[in-house]
Design a protein that fits this description.
- The structure holds 2 protein chains of 2 kinds.
- Chain A is mainly α.
- Chain A has one domain: MetI-like fold, CATH 1.10.3720.
- In chain A, helix 1 crosses helix 11, helix 7 runs antiparallel to helix 8 and helix 8 packs antiparallel against helix 11.
- In chain A, 39% of the residues are buried.
- By secondary structure, chain B is α/β, with parallel strands linked by helices.
- Chain B has a single domain, classed as Rossmann fold, CATH 3.40.50.
- Helices cover 36% and strands 27% of the residues of chain B.
- Chain B is built from 10 helices and 10 strands.
- In chain B, strand 4 and strand 5 form a beta hairpin.
- In chain B, helix 3 crosses helix 4, helix 3 packs parallel to helix 6 and helix 4 crosses helix 6.
- The two termini of chain B are 32 Å apart.
- The model of chain B has no long low-confidence stretch (mean pLDDT 92).
- The chains are: A mainly alpha, B alpha/beta.
- Chains A and B meet through helix 7 and helix 8 of A and helix 2, helix 3 and helix 6 of B.
Chain lengths: 283, 251
C-alpha cells in the first residue's frame, strides 16, 4: 500500500476510535460520579427502611417498592397489548389503508413527549376514570408510553421470522394460529422480550408520566392496593433535588445509583434472556 | 392406472396477472409426475394449487377444479387445513424449523393431536427411516435440525411430511439447493416413496425428470403444452416446443 493511502487509512481508524471513546466518556462519567458519591449511602438500612424526617433521614424502601410495582404494572399492561397488536398487524391484518394509518399512529405515538403522556394519564385515568393518583393510574400511563416501542420491536421480530417456516407449518396442515403459536412466536420471542424489556426499563426511569398520576413525595408506608399513591425512585430524585431542602447529598446520589442499578439490571436480564434462548434453539 | 388427482380447466391469477391457463392434467396414483418448463412457466404455481398453498399469497384467485379422489378441493366445504394434511409439500429450500430433529418430525403429529411420547417416538423413527435419514441422525435426535447438511435437511423435511401420513407429496425443485451426492440420495428416496405415495415434482433438471418420473407435463407461459409418459415425452414428443425445450434449444 502506498504511504499516502496507509496514512489516510490510519487517520480514519484513529478518528473513529476517538469518536467511540468520546461516546463512552459521558456514560463512564455518570456511572463513576454516582458510584463515587452514592456508594456511602448504600447501607442495609437505606435500602430496607422507609424515609424519616421528610426524606432527610432513613431509607428509600417505599420508593424502590413503588418503582418495582409501577414496572410490574407496566409489563402487565403493555406486554400483552403490544405483542397482541404486533401479531395482529403482522400476521392477520392485510396491507391496506387502515393498517397503514394504525402503523403511522404508532410511530407518532413513539415520538410524543413523556410529559404529554403524564397529562393524558392525569386526564383519562386519574380524573375521568376516577382511579385517582394511584399505582394503577401510573402503571396504565407508563404502559401506554411503552406500548409503541413494544409494538414496533415485536413487529420487527415477527417480520424477521422467515416465511419459509410459516409455509412449512401451513403445508403440514397446521392452522394459522397453530403456526403462530408454535413456530412464529418461539422464533420471535427472544427479540420481542429484549425489545420489551428495553422499553419498560426506559419507562421505569421516567418522571413526568408518574408525577401527575401516581407518585408522591413522601409516603413512609408501603402501598396496600393498586389504588394507593406510591413513592417512586425517579420522582423521589426529582423531589430531593428540587423540592425538599436539607437532604444530604449522599442520600440523593444513593437513590440515583439504585435507580440506575434497577434499570441496568433489567437491561442485563434482556440480554441474558436473548442469549439463552438463542443458544437453546441452536443446540 | 388410477387418477389420484386431476385438474380441470385450472386457471390461477395473481391479482391481474394470469399465471395458469385452463390446465387439464391427471396425476396417477403411486407414480411420480414431473412438471418441467422454463422459469416462470407456471409449474410451481400449478404445484401450489394442488394443496391450496397459493392462498397463502394475498391476491391469488383460482378458476376451474382440482380433484382429489374425485372431489373438488376448491369446494367451499373443504377445509384447506385438512386438505394439506393429505397433500403435503416439500419446498425448494430446505426449511427445517429451528428446533430439534425429533421436534421437527413430531411437529405435524403433535398439531394433529398426538401427545403420547411413545407414539411420537414411533412415528419419528418410522418417518426418518422412510426418508432414509434414520441411520445418520439416530444419535442426535435431540440436537438442532439446523446443524444438518442441506441434503440431510431436505430429507428431514420429507420425513416431517411423511409423519402426517399424507397421500400425495408435492415437491418444488427439492434438489435445486443440493450437491450431486445428496441429489442422488434424494432421487433414490423418491423412487422408494412412490410405492406408498403419489408424488408430483417440479424440476428444472431434465435428467432428473427423466430419472425419477413416470409421467411428465411440460409447461410454457402458463399453459400445459404436453403431457405423457416420461418415456414418450423424452423420446418422441408430439409438440415441437417440447422437443425444443428438452433438447435445450430454449429455456
Amino acid at each position: 500500500m502506498p504511504a499516502a493511502k496507509r496514512l489516510k487509512e490510519q487517520l480514519g481508524f484513529s478518528a473513529l476510535a476517538v469518536l467511540t471513546c468520546l461516546a463512552i466518556v459521558p456514560v463512564l462519567a455518570i456511572v463513576g460520579m454516582l458510584a463515587w458519591k452514592g456508594w456511602p449511602a448504600l447501607t442495609w438500612e437505606f435500602l430496607t427502611q422507609p424515609p424519616r424526617k421528610f426524606l432527610t433521614q432513613g431509607g428509600i424502601f417505599p420508593a424502590i417498592v413503588g418503582t418495582l410495582g409501577l414496572t410490574t404494572g407496566t409489563i402487565l399492561i403493555a406486554l400483552p397489548l403490544g405483542i397482541g397488536t404486533a401479531i395482529y398487524l403482522v400476521e392477520y391484518a392485510g396491507k391496506n389503508i387502515f393498517t397503514r394509518v394504525i402503523r403511522l399512529a404508532i410511530i407518532n405515538l413513539a415520538g410524543v413527549p413523556s410529559v404529554v403522556y403524564g397529562l393524558f394519564g392525569l386526564g383519562l385515568f386519574v380524573l375521568t376514570l376516577k382511579l385517582g393518583r394511584s399505582l394503577a393510574a401510573g402503571a396504565l400511563t407508563l404502559g401506554f408510553l411503552t406500548l409503541p416501542i413494544i409494538i414496533s420491536t415485536a413487529e420487527e421480530a415477527l417480520l424477521a421470522v422467515p416465511d419459509d417456516y410459516r409455509h412449512a407449518s401451513l403445508a403440514l396442515g397446521a392452522t394459522k394460529w397453530q403456526t403462530i403459536r408454535r413456530i412464529v412466536l418461539p422464533a420471535a420471542l427472544p427479540s420481542m422480550i429484549t425489545g420489551a424489556i428495553l422499553g419498560i426499563s426506559r419507562a421505569a426511569g421516567e418522571t413526568a408520566p408518574i408525577m401527575f398520576t401516581a407518585a408522591a413525595i413522601y409516603i413512609p408506608s408501603l402501598p396496600s392496593s393498586v389504588r394507593d399513591q406510591v413513592m417512586a425512585l425517579p420522582y423521589h430524585l426529582y423531589a430531593v433535588a428540587t423540592e425538599v431542602p436539607n437532604v444530604p447529598d449522599h442520600m440523593a446520589f444513593g437513590a440515583a445509583l439504585v435507580l440506575l442499578a434497577i434499570v441496568s439490571g433489567m437491561n442485563l436480564i434482556a440480554v441474558a434472556i436473548r442469549t439463552r434462548m438463542r443458544l437453546k434453539r441452536m443446540r | 392406472m388410477e387418477n389420484k388427482m386431476e385438474t380441470r380447466k385450472l386457471s390461477v391469477y395473481y391479482k391481474n396477472f394470469q399465471a395458469l391457463y385452463s390446465v387439464d392434467l391427471p396425476i396417477q396414483k403411486n407414480a411420480v409426475t414431473a412438471l418441467i418448463g422454463p422459469s416462470g412457466c407456471g409449474k410451481s404455481t400449478f404445484l401450489r394449487a394442488l394443496n391450496r398453498m397459493n392462498e397463502v399469497i394475498e391476491g391469488t384467485r383460482v378458476e376451474g377444479e382440482v380433484l382429489l379422489d374425485g372431489k373438488n378441493i376448491y369446494d367451499p366445504r373443504v377445509d384447506p387445513v385438512a386438505l394439506r394434511k393429505k397433500v403435503g409439500m416439500v419446498f425448494q429450500k430446505p426449511n427445517p424449523f429451528p428446533m430439534s430433529i425429533f421436534d421437527n418430525v413430531a411437529y405435524g403429529p403433535r398439531i394433529h393431536g398426538i401427545k403420547k411420547k411413545t407414539d411420537l417416538e414411533q412415528i419419528v423413527h418410522k418417518s426418518l427411516a422412510a426418508a432414509a435419514l434414520w441411520d445418520e441422525v439416530k444419535d442426535r435426535l435431540y440436537k438442532s435440525a439446523l446443524g444438518l447438511s442441506g441434503g440431510q435437511q431436505q430429507r428431514l423435511v420429507i420425513a416431517r411430511v411423511l409423519a402426517v401420513e399424507p397421500e400425495v407429496i408435492l415437491m418444488d425443485e427439492p434438489a435445486s439447493a443440493l450437491d450431486p451426492i445428496s441429489t442422488a440420495k434424494l432421487e433414490d428416496l423418491i423412487h422408494q416413496l412412490k410405492q406408498n405415495y403419489t408424488i408430483v415434482i417440479v424440476t428444472h433438471n431434465m435428467q432428473q425428470a427423466a430419472r425419477v418420473s413416470d409421467y411428465t407435463g411440460f409447461f410454457l407461459n402458463g399453459e400445459l403444452i404436453e403431457y405423457n409418459t416420461t418415456t414418450a415425452i423424452f423420446t418422441a414428443p408430439r409438440e415441437k416446443r417440447t422437443e425444443d425445450y428438452i433438447t435445450g434449444r430454449f429455456g
